[in-house]
Specification:
heterodimer, A: mainly alpha, two-stranded antiparallel sheet, 15 helices, 2% strand, B: alpha+beta, three-stranded antiparallel β-sheet, 20% strand, elongated, disordered C terminus
Chain lengths: 391, 178
């Protein structure tokens, strides 16, 4: 094939598709989030514009475009304009690296062997936009929001980075495709790396400034935090960046812990080989599975927002430094010990990874135990008033 | 009755059961029926003792002006003239109501006029269920006695006042006494 086609045109087409789809999803997320939050709070959410309020998806961007674009008189102009744009860039680039489907289909660039590192490097630059915007607005609330964001992002980068080390020890690759292939041949990484998955989900919420950790924009303390002075399309850019990064992190969680595009474990079920035999239909199915899993994670974001109250700042720091980082280190330690103590053995013709199977079984037992205890009916012990008075 | 929940065991703490319990609760809430009433399409029926718009009955009114006296902000305007009518061969002086206007825009719906009314049943009462009193012009809230009696027939204002001529309320054929 013509190298221009292979290396420029075709990736560009793929990227455009992924980019447009993701941006449409970002616009839709606004409506989905408000609607779901409404449902969680016994109300209906936006339901007046169009059928089921779907017109809100178009109405909100139009409102953002038509509003007055206000710049504070004493703002630091360059930084003020850069602020909303900086978080957008990494989130756009990252979509090139995420494998949306089995290899020949939707991944824009195949075989980047440090893909995971590159994604982490890119997404962690998103905080600069928030800090710059908060500082340049010349507003004490914005500055507080920006500072908090800086501290929070730095704190939670560490557990986020440490949590994936366990996964890397199992899969022995930084390539996202390899990680997915490992998961479909063995088991989804949630089970052997349950603790890492928990840490990843918590840190991912904190990275995106979502509600249990939304201190940078804590509306009850800091007006609107770092975007207090932003209006119209600049504010929309911040929102766009935030939701894009949410989608990126959801994609990462799906790829790292929930089997990516595959639906099956131990080589059984919808694996890459099965999909590749089916041709382009298989590619579509794989992408569909991936997007479904990703949407479940986006739902989880909203669910967390509807459930958990915001942390205090010192609690946030305690959770990050005193709980999550030691936990992540312990996870790495335990995983390493188990993998070294129980190496893969050859039984007859088949290689059996004893340590990984042990971790998987333990993870499954813990999940099952949690579910059993969670759905076990709790009967409150009723003490009669007479018995209380006797005592 | 005193209720005591079992103390959390160490397993509960280890598995973060409190957190998942919270998530379970909110997830259950997601599928509960919603409390929102979509107002223009759906309306709540007010309670039986709801204080809504006035209603006035010309036939029951004896023109005693007690309601106007009771009104703390004096927004009931009553004009009365005497008439002599022959009843059972005797000449009798009767009070006839000329004007019974209420300036509802200043009314606070305290229902003191209803309390003061001596007739039985009351000739002015507020326990109707009409609460949609918004108008585009504040003078539309000044009601005379025909309007007060036939407020059921008052047309709903749907359009803006510029768009259509506001239909006049006083319908001559429905004047009292006919």
């Amino acid at each position: 094939m013509n190298p221009w086609m292979t290396y420029l045109i075709w990736p560009l087409i793929k990227f455009s598709i992924a980019f447009i789809a993701v941006q449409a999803l970002v616009a839709a997320m606004n409506w989905i989030e408000r609607r779901l939050l409404g449902f969680f709070q016994a109300r209906l959410g936006p339901n007046r514009v169009g059928p089921w309020g779907l017109g809100q998806i178009i109405a909100d961007p139009i409102k953002f475009l038509l509003k007055e674009d206000f710049v504070p008189a004493r703002a630091e102009k360059v930084a003020y304009y850069l602020g909303p744009i900086l978080p957008l860039l990494p989130s756009f680039i990252v979509f090139c690296l995420i494998p949306f489907g089995p290899p020949p289909t939707f991944a824009v660039t195949n075989n980047i062997n440090v893909g995971l590192l590159l994604i982490f490097a890119l997404t962690s630059t998103a905080v600069y936009g928030i800090i710059l915007g908060g500082w340049a607005s010349n507003n004490k609330f914005s500055l507080m929001g920006g500072l908090r964001s800086a501290a929070q992002m730095v704190s939670y980068e560490v557990p986020l980075g440490l949590s994936i080390v366990g996964v890397l020890m199992l899969t022995q690759s930084l390539e996202l495709e390899e990680i997915v292939r490992y998961q479909e041949m063995n088991s989804w990484n949630v089970f052997p790396q349950l603790v890492a998955c928990f840490i990843f989900i918590v840190a991912m919420n904190a990275e995106n400034n979502r509600t249990p950790f939304d201190l940078p924009e804590a509306e009850s303390e800091l007006v609107a935090g770092f975007h207090t002075e932003y209006s119209a399309m600049k504010f929309a850019f911040y929102m766009l960046g935030e939701y894009s990064l949410m989608i990126v992190n959801s994609c990462l969680a799906v790829t790292l812990f929930f089997g990516g595009w595959s639906l099956g474990m131990g080589g059984i079920g919808f694996t890459t080989e099965v999909m590749q035999k089916m041709g382009w239909v298989g590619g579509l199915i794989g992408t569909g599975i991936f997007v479904t899993k990703m949407m479940l994670f986006l739902f989880m974001y909203i669910w967390f927002r509807a459930t958990f109250p915001r942390f205090r700042f010192d609690q946030l720091m305690d959770l990050g430094w005193k709980f999550l980082i030691p936990l992540a280190l312990a996870n790495i330690f335990v995983t390493g010990i188990v993998l070294l103590a129980f190496p893969s053995r050859l039984y007859g013709d088949t290689v059996i990874a004893v340590g990984e199977i042990m971790l998987t079984v333990i993870g499954m037992i813990v999940i099952a135990l949690t579910l059993v205890l969670l759905f076990k009916p709790k009967r409150p012990k009723v003490i009669n008033a007479s018995r209380v008075s006797e005592a | 009755m005193q209720v005591e929940y079992p103390k959390p065991k160490w397993t509960d703490k280890f598995l973060l059961l409190d957190m998942f319990e919270g998530l379970k609760t909110t997830f259950r809430e997601l599928f509960r029926p919603k409390v929102t009433i979509r107002y223009p399409e759906e309306r709540l029926e007010p309670a039986d003792r709801f204080r809504g718009m006035f209603r006035f009955s010309y036939d029951r009114c004896i023109a005693c002006k007690l309601c106007a006296l009771a009104c703390p902000i004096d927004i009931i305007y009553i004009d009365v003239h005497d008439e002599t009518i022959e009843q059972e061969g005797k000449k009798k002086k009767v009070k006839v109501l000329d004007r019974y206007d209420i300036d509802v825009k200043r009314c606070m719906f305290c229902a003191l006029c209803e309390e003061a009314c001596p007739t039985k049943p009351k000739s002015i009462w507020l326990t109707t269920k009409t609460y949609e009193l918004a108008t585009y012009d504040r003078n539309d809230l000044y009601f005379n006695m025909q309007e007060l009696e036939y407020w059921d027939d008052r047309p709903r204002y749907t359009g803006l006042p510029e768009e259509e001529e506001k239909p006049r309320i006083a319908d001559e054929r429905r004047m009292l006494g006919e």
